[in-house]
Specification:
Helix content: 25-40%
Largest sheet: 8 strands, mixed
Distance between the termini: 38 Å
Structural class: alpha+beta
Radius of gyration: 30 Å
Shape: globular
């Protein structure tokens, strides 16, 4: 028996969690921790959802995989569209026309012919050309539990009409698209289209959006359509790189709207339909999700060019090869950190993040603060990739609060004093294992307008020593407290200690330590911090009503433009008054005017000059403690190729390469059979049989006598 067990382990590691048939397959293995809620591209706006749908859907544009700064290149479109500027009468204007003269911007988008949808029952037709599954009866619906239960599938070419149909879906009030309000501000006829759908009523069934016209979206021919925007909005091309603008066949909308299917989770939120390199072959969010090649994928090639170091780093070894480079990607549900980490070390996951629990095992810092891998990781040929994310976490002061907010000089001194006292260098070291960069303003590194070196240092909070920042002393912060009317943290008017409320929606084992740390930071100034912990929904309600004082919040870039961060402090976007994303309700007239001037400008020295002034205003007013830009750390095995962090692109799975033979060999080497329990079991069994045999022989002898 023992020999048979050992012989069965020759082709793969004996504890491998995958079928033996996949031991040497061209498959990527990874994990996910949270079930994606929306896989419908009109509704999805979360990173864990984009990890899947960005591989399936193809919007007109994408970000170049290798080039930095981030560069838009065609995906479904033939080229990146250039806007045509028009005056109020519809007459063309020159490209350098003043923003005030531009009444409309026309974007003409040419899509590539030959893009075909993945196999899908919504597109299946019978021999007579009639759709097989567009008129399902209640009895028929009862037979289907997953999309795979439909025996027939079909495909067709994506056309300009499908891109228009998706834009109309963004305006459909039934779908509550998260970008509907932004698009309504710019796309001509968007709001009117939504109002027309509302007036038509909603019976819960299929609404054929082809029968309704949106004034600003026009089909020119089978492969061309035009979008008309109000005014000038250069950032629109960035939206064209998001799956919100991927094509959607009307047939899928009709198919999924049939009664009874949604109750069985047969919907766009579970089963996407795209033209991209992958399709969702299995959606079992309690176990695993599987992306497989789209057999109808029209084709794409690996980039031929990148940055100078990309050639040296092997990032161009696959230049010109057909994409995708892998056949399948399997994502297993892992809600616990330790099992996920252990499977990575065993070689069963190709890549892994680095949690706080495993950080010291994986990463060590050199004398210069640089991150290096530990010897244990190096012995396994594991690689480390790091990148400062285009995100910011900040501590916000509610500017609508009379104690901490407002435009008075005293309250401004108070915010500046607290900004000095809250030491985010320490926070990054203690709670993030050094995975962050202290922020000096609202713009992360790599976003146009951000400054590096001495020019980028916040002079309100830091001094400059030898070209580097040094946080101002607590003595200086206490002097500001006195100027604010709170010497030693006590009000000169009442004699009472200053008490501030900190709103928190933190959860998890680190939250208590983080909250205690925050309390100690303010205690240095004599401020008593009251922690008001709650769930996230209640936290959001406090922000909407403006009842909080201090809170920690963050923002991740939708697109690499300063407008996408500076709008978080634009007065007309105030959370309380306008239900916008300005969570601190900051409202400075000069800043607002500069934002209006800057937001639709092309990147230029003039735009940089305006941004510099805006950042100076923000540093002086201190509506945020600027916090930190998180730094992403990821580990990957040496059989996992073409790894280059791209913080804007979500559709990078198609570029990844796997060496299955090396992986299989390492898995076997790292997971040798543990034989001794089997040997011990055999010995125990043998030992237990000896007394039985002796009793049996004694019984036989006595019977013979």
């Amino acid at each position: 028996m023992l020999l048979i067990l050992l012989n069965g382990c020759g082709e793969r590691a004996w504890n491998a969690p995958y079928p033996a048939s996949e031991a040497k397959s061209n498959t990527l293995y990874s994990s996910f921790s949270e079930r994606p809620k929306h896989l419908d591209p009109a509704r999805s706006y979360a990173a864990n959802e984009y990890a899947f749908i960005a591989q399936i859907y193809e919007p007109p544009l994408q970000y170049h995989f290798l080039k930095r700064p981030y560069q838009l290149v065609p995906l479904a479109a033939e080229k990146v569209p250039e806007p045509l500027f028009l005056d109020q009468a519809g007459n063309p204007l020159p490209d350098d026309a003043p923003v005030a003269d531009v009444a409309f911007s026309d974007y003409e988008i040419h899509i590539k012919p030959g893009m075909r949808y993945q196999p899908h029952p919504a597109l299946a037709k019978d021999d007579a050309g009639v759709y097989r599954y567009h008129q399902l009866t209640e009895e028929a619906v009862e037979r289907f539990n997953t999309l795979a239960d439909f025996p027939h599938t079909g495909t067709r070419e994506a056309t300009a009409e499908d891109f228009i149909y998706q834009i109309k879906r963004l305006a459909n009030p039934r779908l509550h698209s998260p970008i509907a309000s932004i698009m309504a501000e710019y796309i001509v006829g968007f709001s009117e289209f939504a109002s027309e759908l509302t007036a038509a009523g909603d019976n819960g069934g299929f609404i054929d959006l082809r029968q309704y016209r949106m004034a600003g979206v026009t089909q020119l021919d089978r492969y061309r359509f035009k979008v008309r925007l109000r005014g000038k909005y250069p950032q629109f091309v960035y939206w064209l790189a998001m799956t919100f603008f991927a094509p959607m066949p009307w047939e899928a909308d009709l198919f999924y709207s049939q009664p009874g299917l949604d109750k069985r989770n047969i919907s766009l939120n579970w089963y996407p339909i795209g033209t991209g390199p992958f399709m969702l072959a299995e959606n079992n969010p309690n176990l695993r999700m599987v992306l497989a090649r789209n057999p109808h994928f029209h084709g794409e090639a690996y980039p031929l060019q990148g940055e100078p170091e990309d050639g040296e780093n092997g990032m161009l070894d696959d230049a010109g090869k057909a994409l995708p480079l892998i056949d399948k990607a399997v994502y297993s549900l892992e809600q616990e950190v330790i099992p996920r980490w252990n499977k990575f070390l065993q070689g069963y996951y190709d890549t892994s993040g680095v949690s706080s629990d495993s950080f010291d095992q994986a990463v060590k810092f050199g004398s210069g603060g640089e991150a290096n891998l530990t010897d244990e990781m190096l012995e396994r040929n594991i690689k480390l990739a790091t990148a400062v994310e285009t995100s910011i976490f900040y501590l916000g002061f509610n500017m609508a609060d009379p104690v901490i907010g407002g435009d008075s000089e005293e309250n401004r001194y108070l915010r500046q004093a607290i900004s000095i006292a809250v030491n985010f260098e320490e926070y990054i070291s203690i709670f993030l294992n050094g995975r962050g960069v202290v922020a000096h303003g609202p713009l992360p590194l790599g976003i146009f307008g951000s400054r590096e070196g001495p020019e980028g240092i916040n002079p309100v909070v830091f001094d400059i020593e030898k070209g580097k920042p040094r946080r101002k002393s607590l003595q200086e912060a206490r002097a500001l407290m006195a100027k604010a009317g709170y010497p030693n943290g006590k009000s000169i008017r009442t004699g009472r200690p200053l008490v501030l409320n900190y709103e928190s929606a933190s959860a998890g084992p680190d939250s208590k330590a983080q909250l205690n740390w925050m309390r100690k930071q303010l205690k240095q100034l004599g401020i008593q911090l009251v922690i008001r912990a709650t769930d996230y929904n209640r936290f959001q309600e406090k922000l909407r009503k403006g009842t909080g004082q201090l809170f920690m919040f963050g923002w991740n870039a939708d697109y690499p433009d300063p407008e996408n961060f500076l709008f978080l402090l634009y007065g007309p976007n105030g959370k309380v008054e306008h239900a916008g994303e300005n969570a601190v309700n900051y409202d400075n007239p000069e800043f607002n005017a500069l934002f209006d001037q800057m937001k639709n400008m092309e990147n230029s020295p003039e735009r940089q000059e305006i941004i510099d002034r805006m950042v100076d205003i923000l540093r002086h007013d201190a509506p945020w403690i600027w916090g930190f830009y998180p730094k992403a750390f990821s580990l990957y095995h040496d059989w996992y190729g073409n790894v280059k962090p791209n913080l804007m692109a979500n559709n990078t799975l198609k570029y990844k390469r796997i060496d299955p033979a090396t992986r299989n060999a390492r898995q076997q080497a790292w997971n040798p059979p543990v034989v001794w329990p089997l040997v011990l079991l055999v010995l125990v069994l043998m030992a237990s049989t000896v007394p039985a045999m002796l009793v049996y022989r004694r019984h036989e002898r006595s019977a013979a006598r």
